[in-house]
Each structure stands twice: as C-alpha cells, then as structure tokens.
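TA notes, week 10

Several of you asked for a full example with nothing omitted. So below is the full record: structure tokens for the whole chain, then the designed sequence directly under it. When grading your own attempts, check the secondary structure regions first.
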C-alpha cells in the first residue's frame, strides 16, 4: 500500500464515520443532557464523600478532646 492509497483509505474511513453518525437534533440534545446529568451525579458523589470525611475528622477531634478532658478530670487535674 503506497502513500496515496493509504491517504484515500483514511479519507474513506473518515467519510464513513461522518455518514454513520448523523443524529437528529433531539438525539444530540438528549446525549448532551445525559452527559450533563452524569457530570452532576459525579460532582454530587464527590461532594458527599468530601463532606462525610470532613464530618468524620471533626467527630474524631471532638472525641479526642472529650477523652483528654475525661483523662484530666479523672487524674486529679481540675
């Protein structure tokens, strides 16, 4: 296969892809909305994970503070 035949093959393949991907306006809009909905879902999951981890950190700090105060009270430091 020489360079001209290869170029022609690539052009034919590109043309075939263009011809097979003719979507109506409604289909294009639906695909865009589906992609947008998926992006929102991913962002929501990330926000939930971040906020849950933040809450766990604050809970751990509060528990450590409570344990420290309890230790201090039980060992005579008032």
């Amino acid at each position: 296969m020489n360079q001209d035949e290869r170029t022609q093959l690539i052009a034919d393949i590109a043309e075939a892809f263009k011809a097979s991907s003719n979507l109506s306006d409604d289909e294009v809009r639906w695909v865009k909305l589906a992609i947008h909905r998926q992006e929102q879902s991913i962002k929501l999951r990330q926000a939930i994970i971040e906020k849950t981890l933040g809450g766990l950190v604050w809970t751990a700090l509060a528990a450590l503070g409570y344990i420290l105060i309890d230790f201090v009270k039980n060992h005579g430091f008032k």
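Helices lie at 3-20, 25-74. Use that as a sanity check on your answer.
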